[in-house]
Structure of Diguanylate cyclase (GGDEF) domain-containing protein:
Amino acid sequence: YVAKKQRNTYKLYSPLMNDVPTKELILENSMLDALETNQFMLHYQPKLELGTGRIHGVEALLRWKHPEFGMVSPLEFIPIAEKTGFIILLGEWVLRTACLQVKQWEQMGMDAILVSVNMSMMQFQQKDIVASIKAVMSEVGVRPEQIELELTESIFMENPEHTLQILHELQELGLKLSLDDFGTGYSSLSYLQNIPIHYLKLDKSFIRGIVTDIRKQMIFKSLIVIAHNLNMKVVTEGVETAEELQIIKEHNCDLMQGYLFSPPVTPERFAELVRSVNAAGE
Ligand code: C2E
Ligand code: MG
Ligand code: MG
Ligand code: MG
């Protein structure tokens, strides 16, 4: 048996297994082909403004329809793309596709909508990240005000000063920035002191169990107050029940995202959703 060090885990390979590529290896080796043959697509999940009941924005979420495995979760293939560096190419495709979608919705006469794109730490380590984002937006012809980037605290793991500088440049360009998955991992309030972000996205682990857990409710309530005092708006992710919605409204959360309102859907379905919600006028 050969033990192979992979990040922090050891994987065991028996001689018999050598000929059978693992799913991970197959995914890794088929990514470029997948990009070229249009196996990747974006689905869109609305963010609802709690005060007005209007759709405020939408998050682009990457999907991979693999010929052998069917739908593969981004939780499975994004880490592989990060490991190999393919995320740079894939991330640029995501941004360009989301920008083209914004443009198309605009041409359909839809009300202006803010589209957010998730960014990996590795994309942030590119030297020319600001220039390349700018290039994609101007190539497609969208304004920075139409685009939001969702970032996680991991972008501060390496070279935090450089990261902060980039965030300032992006904000000055007019892009909106959110801090995603807040409350997972090693979330620290100290990040909130310095970073120029507009939205704080509370991870779905915050909302799970909140209905019966008073202490969780108190933390949730306090975080919203802190975010508001720092001029940030709060988005609660993963809202699934009416009871959860009730609580986040009581605590003055600004926006919500979750299956209760809508799962991620195709661009066509999203356009219908906007029409029906805005027509209902509530
Ligand atoms: P995320 O950015 O935090 O996205 C939220 C995830 O929660 C999405 O999973 C969404 O489908 C799911 N979700 C939304 N509402 C609910 C709900 O009410 N209940 C539950 N249980 N889940 C809900 P998804 O689409 O599988 O994406 C998972 C993660 O993959 C994302 O987490 C993000 O970190 C990453 N990801 C997705 N697309 C991209 C991308 O284009 N680039 C990068 N770098 N990462 C991406
Ligand atoms: Mg996100
Ligand atoms: Mg999130
Ligand atoms: Mg997440």
Observations:
- The pocket of magnesium ion (ligand 4) is lined by residues 181 (CB under 6 Å).
- Confidence is low (pLDDT under 50) at residues 1-5.
